[in-house]
Structures are given as structure tokens and as C-alpha cells.
């Protein structure tokens, strides 16, 4: 592990519909990176896309163009630093929506070239992966207490199980073959006529209902670590049609959520046992789901595993997690790249 000099990082995230900028401080003189968040600003586009019933890429990109400079200026002001005091830049370059990614990437490249600051491209999913690890130094934990770790990343477009051998080396064990969990939440919300954003609305109603419908648990018993939630979404669709509008929406939400949570928790535990993990981490937008957090917490306690999950503000897309990932990358010896070589890469894998 490389012990790097202290650095102040300006991180930029525009992979979907949030314009986000954060300033972080990395103290790299110890075996474990010490990361302090100086500021984190997120400009949401929920009101814009609610009118359209979902994220429209071109509209998202236009909003990013409008927001990126004032959000950056506010992040610097909140951190009480000037651009001259920034040591390096980090930016999400994929995966994500092409128009949105291009705004953040090109802004970061222009800033890097104009100020002669080094630039580090960061995988959006790596941001989620490292988001639960940013405060471990404050907890007095060392790598031997944590790794190997099984990381469950559950976001709108991705559901991944990742084996982290240590803070530098990781391997994807499985991913979605069709709809990700977050995507299924949003689609179920739409077919139930719930307002945008649909996923949180499904979770809210689920807390008021009973899991009384036996929806399928897709791929639960298959011996791989892949996920599929398209069939579950279709099962909800046919159930609603069969009920001819007489269904209890809260009960459907609770039943659907329980099916998703069962699959996620059981597959994660199976991976933890197979790879003799010492801990499990949860991240991504769906990690804000209280039921999922509750069930993984109980499962980890029962199996004597450490459990790590970021605070709620780090679950949805934000630049702070991109800065955390960049800090770990630097601490692990990763070098910045020529800004001219950085390109938006929408189909990027972790």
C-alpha cells in the first residue's frame, strides 16, 4: 500500500439526474486512508423529471449544464477552500446516461486543463463500493477486521455481489441478467400508478402493508450469484390484472419488497459463507431501504459478521462517494491520467 501525501480532492458526479460536487481531504500517511469530507452539494432534478414520469436523458443533461458551475462554486465555498487549494480532481466517467456523463466529464477535463490539476476518472459503481468504508478509520477498525468482505451494491440500474479481498482487490461474483432491483422497484411503482420517484414510494407503502402475496423469488436456488427481477415484476403485473383493480396496494408493495429482500439477503449470505467473509457491506440507492437494512443487520448479527452500510446521504448518487473512491484509489497507488484521455463510458462494468 502506498502512503501518499495529504491531498484535497474535488469530486464531480453527473451519471444520472443529480448534479453533485464534493470536496474531501485525504490524509495518506497511515496504513488506512483518513478521509474527511469538507463539503458535499447535491442538486436534485426530481421535480423536473416528475413532470415526465421518469428521467429523460436530454433534459437531465441540460439541467447538468445549468447546475454544474454553481454547484461547484457552492462546494468550494462550503469547504472554505479556493480552487487553487485543490490538489486534484475526480470525476465519474461511467456507467450512466451518456448525455449526463458527458457534462461532468467534459467540465472536469476543462477544469483540469485550465488549472493544470491532475484528474482521476472514477467508476460510479466503485463509488458505491467504497462508500461504506470512508469512516472506518474513525471506528478504529483495521483491514484484518473487515476483509474478506462481501459487498452488495443495489442501485437503480445495477445489482452486484462483489468479493473484496482487501481494500485494493475486488472481484464481481454476480450481477443482474435483466432488471436490477432498483429498476424493478420503479417499474412496479409505475404499474401501480404511484408517483415518481417510484422506488421510495413502494418502500413507504410496504411499511403499511402485509407481505400476504407469495410472489416468486427469482434465481434464489441457482448456484450462481446473478440476479433477475424482471419475472418478479411481471408476476406483480399479472396479479394486479387478476385482481381487477380490487387489490390492496400496500400489501402488494410489502409482498414485492419481501421477495426482493429475501433474494438479496440469502444470496449475499451464501457468498459470505462460501468465501469465508468477515463482513458484509451494503451500498447503492436501494441500500436506503429500511427493510433491506434491517434484514441484513439481523443476518449479520446471527452469523457473527460485521455489517457496514453508509449513512443515508451516501446511498443515492452523490460526489462524496466518488471522492471516497478516489481517495482509496490514490492511497492504493493509482495515478491520475491525462485529462484528454478521459471519456464518458456508459456501459462500463465495475
Could you characterize what this model shows?
This protein has 350 residues and is of the alpha/beta class. It has 2 domains: 7-129 and 315-341, Nucleotidyltransferase, domain 5, CATH 3.30.420.40; 142-312, Nucleotidyltransferase, domain 5. 41% of the residues lie in helices and 19% in strands. The protein contains 11 helices and 10 strands. It has a 5-stranded mixed β-sheet with strand order 3-2-1-4-5, sandwiched between helices. It has a 5-stranded mixed β-sheet with strand order 8-7-6-9-10, sandwiched between helices. α6 packs across α7 (198-206) and α6 runs antiparallel to α9. The longest helix has 26 residues, at 249-274. The radius of gyration is 20 Å and the shape is globular.
Q: Give a count of the beta strands, DSSP E runs of length 2 or more.
A: 10
Please state the overall shape, judged from the principal axes of the Cα atoms: globular
The average pLDDT is 94
Uncertain spans: none
CATH class category name of the largest domain: Alpha Beta
Q: What is Rg?
A: 20 Å
Helix content: 40-55%
Approximately what portion of the residues adopt beta-strand conformation?
15-25%
CATH topology of the largest domain: Nucleotidyltransferase, domain 5
Q: Which properties best describe this structure?
A:
350 residues, alpha/beta, Nucleotidyltransferase, domain 5, 2 domains, five-stranded mixed sheet, globular
